[in-house]
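User: My instructor asked us to take a sequence, write out its structure as tokens, and then describe one feature of it. I'm not sure where to start. Here is the sequence I was given:
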Amino acid sequence: MKNFKIICVKVCILLALVAFTQCASSQKMNNTTPEGVKNAYFKNWHSDNESGFTLYIPVDQEMSIALKHAYFKQKKIMLVKENDKALYTGKYTYPKKEGDMVMSDDPKQEFKNKVPAGIERIPFRLKEGECIIVYSKEGTEGHFSIENVPEQ
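Assistant: Let's start with the prediction itself. The structure tokens for your sequence are:
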């Protein structure tokens, strides 16, 4: 009976290690940029009541992959292919600041404060200027990294 418990514990540990190894291998980054993706860049923009940035990713017309979204500046940005252009763009608008918050010892005075928008967590740790692109090719999804995306 004692040997049976030892064997069961070892089998459980082995199964857990295999499961964690599979999860880690599914998040491997493709360090090579797919053929057809050119130098990406971004532009900051400001209007009267909004500000943000737009990410530009030039590609070849006959590229065999479809870019879906990008992770850049700790934000997830949906990418859209421009009509009749070999260019994907993604626009991010910074959230508007909703006036001052009331801070008081009395919770009733703070009741009218609006809850701040939640911060979306992204599945990657990005370096400064790094952009991770998620793409699909023949029904399978992959991702690659572009480092040092310049501002224009």
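For the description part of your assignment, you could build on this observation: The first helix runs from residue 2 to 26. Try explaining in your own words what that tells you about the chain.
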